[in-house]
Amino acid sequence: MAEKVAGAPATLAITVVACLAPREVREWVLDLPVGATVADALRTSCGVEAGDAPSVGIWGRAASLDAVLQPLDRVEIYRPLKVDPKVARRERFARQGARTTGLFARRRPGGKSGY
What we know:
Protein name: UPF0125 protein J2W88_003160
Number of helices: 2
Organism: Acidovorax delafieldii
Strand order of the largest sheet: 2-1-5-3-4
Family: Belongs to the UPF0125 (RnfH) family.
Strand content: 25-35%
């Protein structure tokens, strides 16, 4: 564990964020002891145990459950994707057609294709 330094706080302010459903976000603000891990934050906030191991990250970067937290860290719990984003984009592009998406959507009158 970390050693106490004179004047250093004995706890860490941590935020845990979980997206429970589309457009539904739940947030917990915790005070955890110095040296706490991601698993400690999950157990304290929403009762998730190591056996239920969801995908987690700290400030948008993947993290393991035994990663030690720093002051003001934001632990994020990720839901699994239902559709691969590349496949969804490819299908959307095929459905809309090449002329109505991206650079081709706002073509100037008389301009060259793609400008």
